[in-house]
Amino acid sequence: MIRNCFLCNSPTEVVFSTTWALPGLAPREIGFSVCPDCGSVCQSPTVSFDEMMTFYSSMAVYTNPGRAEKPSEAKIRDLDEQIQFIKRGIGQLPNSILQIGCSDGYTLSRFRDAGVKRVLGVEPGNASVELAKRLYQIDCIHGSAEDFQTDETFELILLTHVLEHLYQPQTTLEKCRALQQGVDEGFIYVEVPLMAQPESLCPGFFSFEHINYYTKENLLQSLQQAGYSPVSVVEHFNSNLSPIIGILASTKSQPHYGNYQVDPNLNRQWLSHYRAKEVGYWQGCLDTLLDRLQQSRRIYLWGAGIHTCQLVANTNLITSCHITGLTDTSSLKWGLKQGDWVCQDPASIDWQPGDTVLISSYASEKEIFDALTWLREKGVATLRLHNVDDTRAH
């Protein structure tokens, strides 16, 4: 599927593309493109909306079993800041909040604990809706940002790490603005990964699930086009795995920010530079492990998902080693095909001394490694591809 620009709807130009062995979907060409008119970067070619919704509803998991469904320290820290940032920007916390893309409900539970009287979530993932109710007693509309309906009005709408996932993010922002027509002054808080200089971006920044990419300039444009006026902006480069930007905006006109322009040529250069850096990174990580992998009795990749997809797409793993299979602790992924493998329950595998597990995950690598002591006790080598001990949240 070829996409036009998510901000100005102009045709886009592909900078690079590769074939991805997508979990639960057939291998597909995935590319990243620049809009020659406004400079925005998006994923194109990509999968269809229906295929992406199938991915979210059937296998997208945003809680780590290694934490027993508890939030990470970084998530707790980020919510502490988010609550104070919004309270400072508005002057007080609102009485009502709608969060689109509420995941497991933890964010809304924190705002409720801070004194917000009415909280409601919107979430497309079956597992996440159930978690929100079970863990935090948060009510959710089970639906997507595109199709949910509500007759309620809300003083504040949250979209934290949502806009980068939407095929028509401007339509969703306009929908939010319409929901706040009956409020004297409504607010919206959006937070997204920040597309910055290539040196600032983590491995896997251009991922399957993120189909829109925001700089400070085009995020401000995006909100202004939808009828919001920015009040406050926060940017972080070193506290999370990738840079992030958060903007609090009002339905009332504010004089603080003018019109920003994005340079298409600069973003095109950044994409090309990042692509070369990304391939070199993944292959370099694999090269340090190839001798051990090639001496293994059997090799299993741990983690049915996007990092396994990127490992295969960005390295010579398949031509250098014979991969026996794929395994993951998430029952949602068991039986799903990714590339030539079907994901198995690790408990169903007859592990033997001399077997090797290669962990593909970047963000959760250490947590997964620490949870695999039982395999090492059986004589199975568990190899970390990235060797990142940092548990900063994405």
Structural account:
The chain has 394 residues and is an alpha/beta fold. It is 31% helix and 21% strand. It contains 12 helices and 17 strands. The strands form 3 sheets. It has a 7-stranded mixed sheet, sandwiched between helices. Strands 14-15-13-12-16-17 form a 6-stranded mixed sheet. A 4-stranded antiparallel sheet has the order 1-2-3-9. The longest helix has 24 residues. About 1% of the residues have low confidence.
How would you sum up the global shape?
A: globular
Strand content bin: 15-25%
Strand order of the largest sheet: 6-5-4-7-8-11-10
Total DSSP helices? 12
Structural class: alpha/beta
Portion of residues within helices: 25-40%
Overall mean pLDDT stands at 92
- State the major sheet: 7 strands, mixed
Please, what is the oligomeric state? single chain
Distance between the termini: 27 Å
Order of helices and strands: EEEHHEHEHEEHEEHEEHHEHHEEEEHHE
Q: Which consecutive residue ranges, at least 5 long each, have pLDDT under 50?
A: 62-66
Q: What value does the Rg take, in angstroms? A: 21 Å
Number of strands: 17
Short overview:
The protein is an alpha/beta fold. Helices cover about 30% and strands about 20% of the residues.
